[in-house]
Structures are given as structure tokens and as C-alpha cells.
Amino acid sequence: MACLPLMGRYPNHKVGMIMRWLFSIFVVFATTAGAQTYPQYQSTWVNDYASLLLPEGEADLAERLENLKAETGVEMTVLTLGAQAAFAPGLTLEQFATGLFNEWGIGDAERNDGVLVLVLRTDRAMRIELGAAYGRDWDLTAGRVVERNFLPAFREDDYAEGIVDGSKAVIDQIVMPFRAGEPSPVRAVDPSKLVTIIATIVGGSIATIAGIVMLSKRLIHKLRKCSNCGQGGFNKTRIVTATASTTMNGRGINRFHCDFCGHSEDRAFTISKISTSSSRSSGRSFGGGSSGGGGASGRW
């Protein structure tokens, strides 16, 4: 046995110490080697592990993505997580999204036109990751969709609306034009005008921008009516009281407050635990597509 030379050179109690030390190193190595870098998926359409979507919104989005696949062959999937650190703390957001995309094999293996929408609630970050076929031509368009269709709602903690509306924009402004052979509308801008456009944006009045932001907030608030008085201005604050893990569900509270009548109410919600099983409850798998790192990220 491997330990016999040790027994001949050291007292028994020292041999035991050495063996325990070697075993502890083995355990650490085995744990590190088997550490999970990416979450497993349960559905090829929507995996809302951070519980950001309302049930009806999730069902509607899943149906929309399923129809997209049936009608065009394009696989697009939405994933929400609490934080990236639970899986790959040493990677950038872009590296994590690309690795996850390729690990799952999103999209058709020959066309490589799949799309991943990744939202990290605790990190306050998101990314649209595009399949390799899009190249880098559609990165600016993806960035515009992030800024215009996802982030405004996310900044108001209205993740359900932001994810659903933003995903629709990805389909309408990226997937469908690309399938039709159209060039990226942002890429088609005359380069000679780019300096003027940037100067105009940068030189804009801060006061004007602040006014637009405030107006947007008021409009969003007016869309949500108070359950007590029926007036607009029913503000929602999302509070996560326990984050989800691979072994336990998370918990949280949606706290609503009316600016008009002062009515307040709390609505509890559950955050589904993150699946680590290699089995797929949906009975489906992706088509083996890959990404070359194209897309766009955003933070709020």
C-alpha cells in the first residue's frame, strides 16, 4: 500500500496526520474540479430563476419564443439569475454569457442564429448574447435595444415589463430583420455623421435629460393603479428577503404604496431554486449553436 513507506519512517500518529492532510487536499481538489460554472436549464424558452416575471407574463413570453422557433427556426431563450458569483465569479459578464450560450448550445448548429437574454437581478446587469452568425454587425443594435427597451423599466424595478417588452424588441429589431437579410439599422448610419451624433448626445443639457427621466417615471407610475382608490401612482418596491440557491427557494416581498391615498400593501413571492440537475423537465434541448461573443451588455 502507498502508506507503508510512511509507516516505516514516522510514528503512527504522524502518519495519521499526514494521511488526513492528503485527504483534505484531495477533497478540495475534487470539489473545485466538480464546481458548476453554469446553471442547468429546465426549459428552452424561459428559466426565471430570479422570479422576476409574473406567471401570466412568463407563459406569454414562453409561447412567443416557442412560436418564433416554430415559424423561423430561431432559438431564443431568457434566463434570470440573482448573481453571477454563484457560478463563475472569475469571469466578466460577457465571458459568462458567451460561455453559457455555448455550454447550452443555443440555436441551430448550422445557422448559429440563436439569442440569449440574460438578466442578473442582484448584480443589476444584463446582456443580449447573439449567435455567431450575427457577427459584430448587430452589436450596436443590441445595445440600443438594451438601453431603450430593457433598462428604463429595470431602473424602476419593473422587471416583468422590461423583460417581456425587451424580448419582443429583440425579436422585432434584431431576429426578424436579420432573418430577412436586412443590414443592422444602426450599422447603416453614415460614419461621417457619427461625430456629429455623438457630439449632440454628449452636449445635451443635463437638465433636459433629468426632465425626461422624471417624466418617464411619472408615466410609468400612472400605468399602475392603486387597488384601494384606483388612482395612478401605485409605486412598487421589490425586496428580496432570501436569495435562491441550488438547494433552497428564495423569498421576497413586493411592497406597493399609493401616492394619493397612502394605501400600502405587501405581496410575498417565492424565488424558484436554481436547478442543478442534468435532466430537462421540458423534455427538449437546444440545437447545438454557438456564439462568438457578439451582443451588448447593460447595467442599471
Identify the strand order in the major beta sheet: 1-2-3-4-8
Tell me about the largest β-sheet: 5 strands, mixed
Radius of gyration: 24 Å
Relative helix content: 40-55%
The count of helical stretches stands at 8
CA distance, first residue to last residue: 59 Å
| SS content category | alpha/beta
Give a summary of the structure in a few sentences:
The protein has 300 residues and is of the alpha/beta class.
Protein architecture, described:
This protein has 300 residues and is an alpha/beta fold. It contains 8 helices and 8 strands, in the order H-H-E-H-E-H-E-E-H-H-H-H-E-E-E-E. It has helices spanning 4-9, 12-33, 55-72, 93-104, 139-154, 159-179, 194-202, 206-223, and strands at residues 46-48, 76-81, 115-120, 125-130, 234-242, 250-258, 264-271, 295-299. The strands form 2 sheets. It has a 5-stranded mixed sheet with strand order 1-2-3-4-8, sandwiched between helices. Strands 5-6-7 form a 3-stranded antiparallel sheet. Helix 3 packs parallel to helix 6. The longest helix is centred in the first third of the chain and has 22 residues, at 12-33. Residues 20-35 and 275-283 have low confidence and may be disordered.
